[in-house]
Design goal:
Helix 2 runs antiparallel to helix 5 and helix 6 runs antiparallel to helix 7. The relative contact order is 0.16. The protein has one domain: Up-down Bundle (Growth Hormone, Chain: A), CATH 1.20.1250. It is an all-alpha fold. The chain is built from 16 helices and no strands.
Length: about 425
C-alpha cells in the first residue's frame, strides 16, 4: 500500500497558502517588487533632500508635500474604488507614481533638482498613492476566501517590511553609494511599471453594483461617512490614529535620518541598516501571525497594546548613541506596528460589507492621516527649538500614552463584546 504524498510545501506553511490563488499571486508579486521600490525611495528621498539642504525643515516640507494630497484625495478615491473596477484604479496609481519618481531620477542625474521641484514631484507621487491605496486594500477579500484573510494580510505585511524597510533601503543605500541617487530613483520608478503589469494580468472583476445602491458619487461618499459614524469602534480607532500619528509621524520620517547621519555619523548604508532592522522585526511578527492563522482572543485589545508600543518606540531614537541601538529600536517598533496593521485590516475586512470597503479604508486613511501634514509642519520648528532628540522623546511619549487612553473610550472594543467576532456568527460583512 503506497503512502500518501506529502502536502506541498506551500500548504504546510500557513502564511503561504493564499499564493495558491492565481490572482493573489499576481497581486503579491507586483506588490513585493513595488514595495522594494518604496524602500529605495525612503533612503533616496532623504539623501537627496539632505544633499540639497541639510536641515530638518527641508525634509518636513517633503513630508507635507507627500501626505497632503493623500488627505485631500483619498476619500474620493475610496468612493471610486467602490464604483469602478479596482484594478484600473490601481494601474492608474502605479502610472502616476512611475512618472513622478522617474522625473525625480532624471532631474537628479542631470543635477537640476531644487527643493521646489522635489516638492512638486513628491506631491504628484502622493496623489498616485491616494489613487492606488483604497482599491488595493479593498480588493483582497474579493480574491481570497474568507478563511485565508488572516494569512493573506499577514503575507502582505510580511512583504511590506521585508521589501520597504529591509531589502529596499539596503538596495537603495547601495545604489546611491555605487552609482547615484538619481539612478536609485529610476530603479524605484521601474518597480511601479512592473506592478502595473502584474495587476493587468489579474482576472478578478467587480460584481455589478446593486440597483438599489446610491447612484450618486456624493451619495456614496455620504453613505461611507454615515457607516463609520455608526460603528463607534471604527471611528474611535481612526480618531485615535489621527492624534497619535500627529505626534510621531513627522518626527519619525524627518528626524531619524538626521539622527543617523548627523548624530551617529552614519552613511546612506547605515540608514538602510536601521530601516532594515525594522524590516526584520516586522517580517518576524508577520510570519508568526500568519502561521498562527487566526486573530487573538481579544483582537482589539491586542491591537491597541501593540499600537502603543510602536508609538513609544519613537522615543527610543532620541536616546540612542550608536547605529546598532537605533537598529534595535527599529526592530521592536516596526514589529509592533506590523502586528497592529494585520489585526486592523483583518477586522475591517471581516466586519465591513464589501460594497463599503473602499470607502471605509479611504476614510481610515484620510481620518488617520489628517494630522500628518501638521505633524511634518511642526516637526521642523520644534526640532530646531528644542533639539531633535528631545522632539523624538516627547513625540514617542505622547503618541504611546494617547493610544492607550483611546483603548478605554466607550465603544472602542465593541467587536470583542457584541458577538460579531464569535465563530459561526454572521458578521457585518454579510449584511
Amino acid at each position: 500500500m503506497s503512502e500518501p504524498e506529502p502536502a506541498p510545501f506551500r500548504d504546510r506553511i500557513a502564511i503561504l497558502r493564499p499564493l495558491a490563488v492565481r490572482d493573489f499571486a499576481f497581486l503579491w508579486t507586483g506588490m513585493t517588487v513595488s514595495m522594494i521600490g518604496d524602500g529605495i525611495y525612503l533612503v533616496s528621498i532623504a539623501w537627496q533632500v539632505l544633499s540639497i539642504e541639510n536641515r530638518p525643515g527641508a525634509l518636513a516640507l517633503v513630508g507635507i508635500a507627500w501626505s497632503l494630497p493623500q488627505v485631500l484625495l483619498v476619500i474620493a478615491s475610496g468612493a471610486l474604488s467602490d464604483r469602478l473596477e479596482r484594478r484600473h484604479l490601481m494601474i492608474a496609481g502605479d502610472a502616476i507614481r512611475f512618472f513622478a519618481i522617474g522625473a525625480l531620477g532624471l532631474l537628479s542625474i542631470s543635477d537640476q533638482l531644487t527643493i521646489p521641484i522635489v516638492l512638486g514631484l513628491v506631491t504628484v507621487y502622493g496623489a498616485g498613492q491616494a489613487v492606488f491605496q483604497p482599491a488595493f486594500t479593498s480588493i483582497t477579500p474579493a480574491i481570497v476566501p474568507a478563511e485565508l484573510l488572516v494569512q493573506a494580510n499577514s503575507l502582505a505585511q510580511l512583504v511590506r517590511p521585508f521589501a520597504m524597510t529591509l531589502v529596499g533601503p539596503l538596495v537603495g543605500g547601495l545604489l546611491i553609494a555605487w552609482v547615484s541617487v538619481g539612478f536609485a530613483f529610476l530603479v524605484d520608478a521601474s518597480t511601479f511599471a512592473f506592478s502595473a503589469l502584474m495587476i493587468l494580468a489579474m482576472r478578478t472583476r467587480r460584481s455589478p453594483r446593486d440597483a438599489q445602491e446610491q447612484a450618486s458619487f456624493f451619495g456614496d461618499v455620504v453613505e461611507g461617512l454615515r457607516y463609520v459614524r455608526r460603528q463607534r469602534w471604527l471611528l474611535i480607532a481612526m480618531v485615535g490614529a489621527t492624534v497619535s500619528l500627529l505626534a510621531v509621524w513627522g518626527p519619525w520620517e524627518t528626524l531619524v535620518p538626521i539622527v543617523v547621519r548627523n548624530d551617529l555619523g552614519g552613511k546612506a548604508s547605515s540608514l538602510g541598516f536601521v530601516f532594515g532592522a525594522g524590516g526584520v522585526g516586522a517580517v518576524i511578527a508577520a510570519a508568526l501571525f500568519g502561521q498562527r492563522g487566526s486573530l487573538p482572543r481579544k483582537p482589539v485589545t491586542a491591537m491597541y497594546l501593540a499600537w502603543s508600543l510602536g508609538m513609544f518606540g519613537t522615543a527610543g531614537f532620541g536616546v540612542v548613541n550608536s547605529v546598532w541601538q537605533a537598529m534595535a529600536v527599529a526592530f521592536v517598533t516596526e514589529g509592533s506596528i506590523t502586528y497592529l496593521v494585520v489585526v486592523w485590516v483583518t477586522l475591517v475586512q471581516r466586519l465591513v460589507p464589501d460594497r463599503l470597503l473602499g470607502r471605509v479604508f479611504s476614510l481610515d486613511w484620510m481620518i488617520s492621516t489628517m494630522g500628518v501634514p501638521l505633524s511634518f509642519a511642526i516637526t521642523g520648528p520644534t526640532a530646531e527649538a528644542i533639539g531633535h532628540d528631545a522632539t523624538l522623546i516627547w513625540a514617542g511619549a505622547l503618541g504611546g500614552t494617547i493610544t492607550l487612553l483611546f483603548m478605554f473610550v466607550r465603544g472602542a472594543r465593541d467587536p470583542e463584546r457584541d458577538g460579531s467576532l464569535a465563530p459561526g456568527e454572521p458578521s457585518a460583512a454579510a449584511a
